Amino acid sequence: MIMILAFLTSIAIARRIMKATSVLKVAAKVVGEVQALIIFPVVPYLILAIFYTFWFSAALHLFSAGQVIQNDCNTDCCSYDLKLGKVNCDRCCGYTIHYTPHIGIAILFHLFGCYWATQFFIGCSSTIIAGSVASYYWARGEISHDIPFHTVVSSLKRLLRYSLGSVALGSLIVSIVEWVRFILESLRRRLKFVDSARGSRFGKTVSSSSQCCLGCIDWTLKSVNRNAYVMIAITGKGFCKASVLATGLIMNNVLRVGKVNVIGDVILLLGKLCVSLLCALFAFLMLDEHKYRSGHNKISSPLVPVLLSWALGYIVAKLFFAVVEVSIDTMVLSFCQDSEEHQGNARYAPPLLMETLDEESELRRLTQGP
Q1: Which residue ranges run through the membrane (predicted)?
Q2: Is 288 inside any structural domain?
Q3: How far is CA 4 from the centre of its chain?
């Protein structure tokens, strides 16, 4: 029954799938033309790796700055003393680390700064990719192919000169909302534990509703934030104006954006899963050879290497498919902006994108028939 429903649903949305596939083809063509985008995702993650190294070193210094205080023993207990090498029943209640208020605030700010910096670097990466794709769109594909990194470098220069503060503001807003959401989620779990102990249905209902609301707010904010980065790259406006402009374009072209993003995200997710599963299959076939089943290279169980290959394959696939995702959003929003500026007729869109997203031609095709 489920298979029949899935088959009928696939037939019903076949036209939508073809449209989303056309936009994916345009995005893939852009990535192929701007060849630097293929290797660009590695750069921000290398920067993040260097940043995490220094951050972790500073975190060790902060967490070790507290004062170690032995707890008061009010009950009889025994524990193994590593220094004496025997069981000790005197003052064995353990130790606690006491932090001064200044160190506690510094630790919280350090943790918050890590998330903020992560969102900032990801936002910069998205803005650079969107700027490169937007340059390709508005130049009608007439970009310089003599210098492979010309478009990406130009987008990076625009980011550093005009849009760095906007990206910092957007990442700060996301970080603050995420931390508020984390605090509210912690409170919700504690209240849920208390209500479950009392058996209150009202408490369970409120807990489930609050979790759903927080999840919707988080998803909406991240979506608006990502589209704001795209509009910053397209128009060069500040974060707030770009957010309003992106939201307005999406609301005015909800059918165009919806039919591409929903199905396109599903297709990209299937692509990530296929890549990761192929990596796992390749690892399993490689470990199934004779040299890994006997001798010094013998593998007792291929489960851990296969799972590790699957995880690494998914991470790498997600890293590079993110370029395609940002490219799709940029092409769609550029098309909507182009249509808004030219009274509903996009002048700079590629022919395949025009056939896919042009509503007038689609209505004409539906009224006149095939």
Answers
A1: 35-55, 120-139, 159-184, 266-287, 307-328
A2: yes
A3: 34
